[in-house]
Amino acid sequence: MSVKIKVENLNAWYGRNHVLKDINIEIKANKITAIIGPSGCGKSTFIRCLNRLHEVVPGAQVKGHVWVDGQDLYALGVDPTEVRHRIGMVFQKPNPFPTMSIFENVAVGVRIHGLKPGVKLEEIVERSLRMAALWEEVSDRLYTSGVSLSGGQQQRLCIARALAVEPEVLLLDEPCASLDPISTLKIEDLLVELKKNYTIVIVTHNMQQAARVSDYTAFLLDGELVEYGPTPEIFTRPQDKRTEDYITGRFG
Ligand SMILES: Nc1ncnc2c1ncn2[C@@H]1O[C@H](COP(=O)(O)OP(=O)(O)OP(=O)(O)O)[C@@H](O)[C@H]1O
């Protein structure tokens, strides 16, 4: 099974607050990896280091390596914008651009990065909306506002927007936190479908969700990676007492 992202001795700080401590992990290609752990343990910071978004916070610092297909994203001369193009991100709260139509919300990144010759924008928008399992619901109202959609639809729109620029990896930071159970299941089904073509890393507070959708689970505690392995093993035979305590609800 091939490794898509190799993280080596990753450390991250906000000012003097050392929030990620020597993280080493190999994230497998075309699998869903769930990042779990109590509030404040560093889950969001970790995935934001995977596409160099952490460093946009004033005073934030990163040390270590993140290799994607053998390229170190933190090597000198690597363009962070290009990294974020390759490694897309979906946030906790659906955040379609409020003044843009559904069509424009999906097209915006492609317009910025430039359309490949011979490719039609309409085709990219339709393909992305289909991949995000939203096309059937919006194909007759593409030019209405993105924020006219329900929360679950807005989140799928944000996934379509992330997919439109053809990333290799999709990072999702608690994408279902503000959604109802039906919308949540739709997103989960979608992720399982998308892993055929993408490597997916999802931060979740929801243990059932991690168990339902992920192939691998990483448990973070106080900025350290306590345990990482195939999801069924983490949930049924955790090696570390702290993992067991967390997944059985003793803390967090
Ligand atoms: N922008 C920021 N500026 C300063 N400190 C921050 C910032 N964002 C996060 N932190 C701190 O970094 C630590 C890790 O936060 P992070 O958001 O990565 O945790 P998390 O596990 O994702 O938490 P949650 O589950 O509550 O979202 C916390 O101590 C938090 O207070």
UniProtKB/TrEMBL annotation:
Which PROSITE patterns does the entry link to?
ABC_TRANSPORTER_1 (PS00211), ABC_TRANSPORTER_2 (PS50893)
Q: Which GO terms describe its biological process?
A: phosphate ion transmembrane transport
Q: Does the keyword Membrane apply?
A: no
Q: Where is the ABC transporter domain?
A: 5-247
Q: Per its record, what are the GO molecular function terms?
A: ATP binding; ATP hydrolysis activity; phosphate transmembrane transporter activity
Q: Which InterPro entries match?
A: AAA+_ATPase, ABC_transporter-like_ATP-bd, ABC_transporter-like_CS, P-loop_NTPase, PstB-like
Please provide, in alphabetical order, the Gene Ontology terms of the cellular component aspect for this entry: membrane
**Looking at the record's lineage, which domain of life comes first?**
Bacteria
Q: Which UniProt keywords apply?
A: ATP-binding, Nucleotide-binding, Transport
Signal peptide limits: none
Q: Which CDD domains match?
A: ABC_PstB_phosphate_transporter
Can you name this protein?
A: Phosphate ABC transporter ATP-binding protein, PhoT family
